[in-house]
Amino acid sequence: MKKEKSAKPGDMPPDNAVTPKKGFWTTKKIETITAILLGVTTLLSAWASWIGSLHSGIQSINFTKSNNAASEGTAEYNASLQLYLSDYMAWNALSDYYYELEEAKAEGNQSKITFLTEKINSALSSNDPLLTEAIDWMQKNGKSNPFEMPGLTEKYFKEAQTKLKESQDLLAEGQRDNTKGDSYNLVSVIYSLVLFLLGIIAVFKDMPNKLVVMGIAFVFLVFAFIYMLHIPMPTGFAEMNFFEFNSN
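^ that's the sequence the OP posted. Answer follows.
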């Protein structure tokens, strides 16, 4: 039998022999980038949740103010309607006095003329300012009914209309805050998806699979961040207001 040749020292590869180079992506780099993305996404998710809750709070406040303004507007409308009807009845009484006064003048009944004149003056002095203004307009323009005055009805219901419009504006503002809050909730959901994808990267053993999942997570993160920047902040929002302490 032939003896096997033993390896000689000269047959061993030299210490400075060229070894294959490692790729750019290593497990250590993937873990580091994943940890950074997890931290950033967690902070952005917390921010989106906070701003979304602020929108919800402002929405509730605006809806409450809208309901209060609507109630006040309705009460003001009813009061204005009662005043309008009362003034109309007062004018009917005054028109009767004016008619009787013309008859008294035609008859030459001085005592009746004096009595009716006093009644008319007393009624005019106790009239609502709007009715007095309308009667003055009627007399200056040769009309027979003060309620023909342009814009008179609108003047009666001006305050009520102002309150009702305020209610509608507050309702619209609350609806806008509701939409903004829903948008921030959607952003929070996307951030949660990013956290999920980053969390399962360690499950994959092959480097290409890790890179694919991390790339998808990064795309969702960038998309959510850009979308969040386009959502308006709550009305009157200022970060430092939340760090003010009461000195009392």
